[in-house]
Design a protein that fits this description.
By secondary structure, this protein is mainly alpha-helical. It has helices at about 15-45, 55, 60-85, 90-120, 130-160, 165-195. It contains 6 helices and no strands. The chain is elongated, with a radius of gyration of 19 Å.
């Protein structure tokens, strides 16, 4: 395994560079998944039947809390990668842990939101609108949940093995995934919640 010391640790081997490229391709497929969900949502957003509309169930406070938690977590994962590149393992692990705690907070608020929606009569089977809304939000939430466990395994690996080209590569790829979830949330916030409240 030939290492290029002029590059950051996560890019330092040919295999690592290929893994990062492969992950960008995977994210392209994920973009298509969410694009399909958004297309379905926009098509069915006005098909509320006898169920509630977005304006009736959306509340700004939980959505702002979720947005704050997720955007802050994107910042902390960035700080974690920066610390990793400086070889500061302890700082990196701290920022990764903070990122996951913020992610858990986001999931807590989202679960609360779901309970409120169902309580207000917006269940999966209520209307085409609620069905697409809960599917879109649920898919994003499932991705955050997966990200939480993935991040946990990364923390355990870095603690055990230290900062190697392999662990740095895994950590960097995880950070790309986490930033991607943030970008998707910005679209959810803007086009589902903000538009729905108008």
């Amino acid at each position: 395994m030939k290492m290029d010391h002029s590059l950051p640790l996560e890019y330092s081997t040919e295999e690592n560079r290929l893994k990062i490229l492969g992950f960008w391709i995977f994210l392209g497929a994920e973009i298509m998944l969410f694009a399909t969900l958004f297309a379905g949502y926009f098509t069915l957003a006005n098909r509320t039947g006898n169920g509630p509309t977005g304006a009736e169930i959306f509340e700004i406070t939980p959505v702002l809390i979720e947005t704050f938690l997720l955007l802050t977590s994107s910042f902390t994962i960035g700080l974690g990668i920066h610390a990793m590149r400086l070889g500061k393992k302890k700082a990196m692990l701290t920022f990764f842990a903070v990122t996951l705690i913020l992610g858990l907070g986001f999931l807590g608020v989202e679960i609360y939101d779901f309970v409120v929606y169902v309580h207000e009569g917006a269940a999966l089977q209520t209307s085409a609108f609620t069905s697409m809304l809960l599917t879109t939000l649920g898919t994003h939430g499932a991705h955050v949940t997966l990200g939480f466990f993935w991040g946990l395994f990364i923390i355990l690996q870095v603690r055990k093995r230290g900062l190697t080209p392999e662990t740095a590569n895994k950590s960097f790829i995880f950070s790309l995934y986490w930033h991607f979830l943030d970008v998707v949330w910005i679209f959810i916030f803007s086009f589902i919640y903000m538009k729905g409240m108008m």
